Amino acid sequence: MQRIAAIDCGTNSLRLLVSDVGSEDIRQVTRTMEIIRLGEGVDETGHISPAAIERARVVLEKYVDHMVRENVRAVRMVATSASRDAENRDEFFDMTERVLSKVQPGARAEVIDGTEEAKLSFIGAVKDLPPTNEPILVIDLGGGSTEFIVGKQNGEILGAYSTRMGCVRLTERFLHTQPPTPDEIAAARAYVREQLAEVEATVPVNKATSYVGCAGTFTTLSAIAQGLEEYDEQAIHMSTMRTQGLKMVTHDLLGQTGAQRAMLPVMHPGRADVIGGGSIVVEEIVDFMRSRAGLDTITISEHDILDGIIAGLAQEVR
Q1: Which residues on adjacent β-strands are paired with residue 150?
Q2: What is residue 41's predicted lDDT score, i.e. its pLDDT?
Q3: Residue 112's pLDDT is what?
């Protein structure tokens, strides 16, 4: 067995997956997440703030200590929307090399473009679905971007597109009050619809016979809809929801303040102030998929880009 790790640094969170790789299988050892809000203000200023880089460093140091204790032999860290957009991204990447080299000399976070991010997310999200030859749409809703990928379980990608919308980006750009005003919500919806029009022009969403939502907004919505008293990855992973029921949850969240959302037992404190933006994205997506593909159920996956990174890294170390 080889022990390897994947790290995903998005706009909102820093996440770690440690897995054991055998000759034929991959087994999860550790999966964890912390909110660091690396992308705070990047949409407006074009720069990652020193405070955000420091928040990332503190959490990354903790992850590295864990990987050293767990005898991790190889690590790959990817950075997505916020670091793609920031003019001072090299400051962040230099920091990651100093920290990650304690696990693997020369390891450094790498920027991946939206297309690779989409493909890695697809690989991770579909691996636990029932076998099918039909096209599947995977939607990875992040803090600064949302990826749409139509593909098949055999790895064939029929289309992929990365949009410039996510829970943090929408909140910072449009939702300036808590709860947001009708005018703020309307402006955010109009922006999301513009982004979805670009998706439709690029990705064959109408061919999808099912779709999967992954990342923190979707998984938190599933936990709330199920009435969970604590966040339970096993209960959330591969849960299937009627989209009308999902919209009842998002409607309630949009009417709440950040403090009210934070009181929900499954809500991560760092997500409470931005899940309203994520809820608007989700509402527009489910209406879009009902009208374009006739789909009124969605599957929620706890697995995503981290699992895709692990799958690729496993091929290298075997």
Answers
A1: 137, 159
A2: 86
A3: 85
